[in-house]
Amino acid sequence: MRILADENIPMLEVFEQHGLLRRVPGRSLDRAVLDDAEVLLVRSVTQVDQALLAGSQVKFVGTCTIGTDHLDLDYLAAQGIGWASAPGCNARGVVDYVLGALLTLAERDAVALSQRCYGVVGAGQVGDRLVQVLRAMGWQVLVCDPPRQQREGGDYVDLATLLERCDVLSLHTPLTTLGEHPTHHLIGAEQLHKLSTGSWLINASRGAVLDNQELKQFLQQRPDVRAVLDVWEAEPQVDVELAQRCDLATAHIAGYSLDGKIRGTAHIYQAFCEYFAVAAKTAIEFPTQTLLAMQLAAHTPVAEAMRVLCRAVYDPRGDDAAFRLSLNGDAGQRRAAFDLVRKSYPVRREIPDLQVRIDQPQDDLRQMILALGITL
Fold first, then answer.
1. Which domains does the chain possess?
2. Catalytic annotation present for 324
3. Known active-site residue 18
4. Active-site hit among 206, 245, 263, 267
5. What is the pLDDT of residues 290-336, one digit of tens each?
């Protein structure tokens, strides 16, 4: 069996037991590179559609990502090509990214996170996990997800209500252009101008969910609003001026935890084995975390404890600094630098991997630690 894979997918060696594996950069994966591959393993940077697959021998496509907007699912179905994604694989990494962003913004504005009202747009794999963590903290959270509200009912609000009542807006919706609820430029000029004074806007979903040009102009007019962007329209080409106006700017790495990457590969490997009716020959294991546990005093203030615990595992300010260094040079150099930041991304684990030791913690401290998913 001939297998072609994005070189940035970890643990690819498990596929070598089932055929000839070839690794290539995801953005350079085109019809010529595809050659006679029967299995294609990708990430979100590769558009998988008729232009790529027509006339090929591909029988199965696996994407080690939550989203599938880069896959033409109708074409795959019409051609009888099997496919699989990895729903939820990197969701916790994105939650950790948002928590790190909130800590940074709270310090810069000298506000208490517990006093803010959080609006989450999109309650899928990522958004739902974020909502669970924020509500477990005891914080006020409103959720906008029209498709889920239509299917399930429940305690959802529309976008207008969310914009009116929340001073933190975090976007976690897939990118869609068709259907009853398209999300392309879901947040544009009209929505931006409804943000209250001192609002925070976070986008760790897809770049085009948020109109980047309108946001750039808006931030010039409203310096009171703080923006955190991990995703960009037209990436790897990034609007440098917009990035400079963001409080935190990163290279589409919110979900880049090692745990998330490994879960993505494991999910696709299982789907691959099931599709071809072959036995999995190796179990994919997670390496031991470097920082295993932390000891806190029982009287540690909740806000301080949260800051220490989250940043012990992950602090997005480092990714922000690395990304800003990539914004130099001409357009071609910046595109290459964007991909290099992602390719050379350091090992990063997830907050629930951590254990905390503490004698007789106060109820509010215990609540915060358990809300983070940390073993106490």
1. 2-85+257-275 (3.40.50.720), 91-249 (3.40.50.720), 293-371 (3.30.1370.170)
2. no
3. no
4. 206
5. 888 999 999 999 999 999 999 999 999 999 999 999 999 999 999 99
